[in-house]
């Protein structure tokens, strides 16, 4: 399966950056990698219309209900009209700053499923939860919104909160252990293995991408800061297209 590289611009970027990413990521990289750029909502139209933008269109959030009196919200139906194929939900920054609960994120999941947009469910533990070995319980709780659902293709992004924007990344063993736990949880809930892709996110960049992607359980990367640099992002996508994987684990 192709590695999946998703850029999360967060509240950054510009129309000019769209042009620069388009120029840096043209054609040749995409034979073996799938790339998605999640821009702030105002850029989705330009991204969809862009003549030479090869990565797919992604969004960073959607509303947990279909429509109505929710000033400032953007529905999954609207995202679908703009050609969005992936949408992040449950990013730790939104869980913290917008006080998003698992129940709200479950609503967003349902909305995306209803409009055939692939959800990218972001989960991860804090430093304290890692230190106190409660990360399994935390991830399990965040994944519980997938239970009792009609399974559809899903991406889970494992982003330890302590690794986001800090330059710190977990050890290969810790990533392996967390991803194995996630895979077991989700397949136990009835999702066929072929519906599930698990990404790593948190301080991924052009320097460490090849190493992270060489871990057999890592299906791709969710990239924040480094995705704002066109040449770094292009290099990460190019690394992901390298089919000669050194697998560190069988
Ligand atoms: O939060 C992230 C992507 O969603 C990761 O951000 P950084 O790559 O900047 O650490």
From TrEMBL:
It is found in: Cytoplasm. Involved in the gluconeogenesis. Catalyzes stereospecifically the conversion of dihydroxyacetone phosphate (DHAP) to D-glyceraldehyde-3-phosphate (G3P). One of its GO terms (cellular component) is cytosol. The gene is tpiA_2. NCBIfam families: tim. InterPro entries: Aldolase_TIM (IPR013785), TIM_sf (IPR035990), TrioseP_Isoase_bac/euk (IPR022896), Triosephosphate_isomerase (IPR000652), Triosephosphate_isomerase_AS (IPR020861). It catalyses: L-erythrulose 1-phosphate = D-erythrulose 4-phosphate; D-glyceraldehyde 3-phosphate = dihydroxyacetone phosphate. This is Triosephosphate isomerase. PROSITE patterns: TIM_1, TIM_2. Keywords: Cytoplasm, Gluconeogenesis, Glycolysis, Isomerase. Its EC number is 5.3.1.1. It comes from Nereida ignava. Homodimer.
């Amino acid at each position: 399966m192709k590695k999946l590289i998703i850029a999360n611009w967060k509240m950054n970027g510009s129309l000019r950056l769209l042009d620069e990413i388009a120029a840096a990521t043209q054609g040749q990289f995409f034979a073996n990698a799938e790339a998605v750029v999640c821009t702030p909502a105002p850029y989705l139209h330009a991204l969809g219309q862009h003549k030479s933008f090869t990565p797919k269109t992604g969004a960073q959030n959607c509303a947990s209900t279909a429509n109505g009196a929710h000033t400032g919200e953007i529905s999954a139906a609207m995202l679908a009209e703009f050609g969005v194929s992936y949408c992040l939900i449950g990013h730790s920054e939104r869980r913290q700053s917008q006080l998003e609960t698992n129940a709200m994120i479950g609503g967003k999941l349902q909305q995306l499923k209803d409009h055939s947009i692939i959800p990218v469910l972001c989960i991860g533990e804090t430093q304290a939860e890692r230190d106190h070995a409660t990360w399994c319980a935390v991830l399990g709780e965040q994944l519980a919104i997938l239970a009792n659902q009609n399974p559809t293709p899903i991406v889970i992004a494992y982003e330890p909160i302590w690794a986001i924007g800090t330059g710190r990344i977990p050890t290969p063993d810790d990533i392996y252990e967390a991803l194995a736990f996630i895979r077991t949880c989700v397949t136990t809930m009835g999702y066929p293995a072929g519906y599930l892709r698990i990404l790593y996110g948190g301080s991924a960049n052009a320097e460490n991408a090849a190493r992270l992607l060489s871990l057999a359980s890592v299906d791709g990367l969710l990239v924040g800061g480094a995705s704002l640099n066109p040449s770094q992002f292009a290099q990460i996508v190019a690394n992901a297209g390298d089919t000669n994987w050194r697998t560190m684990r069988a």
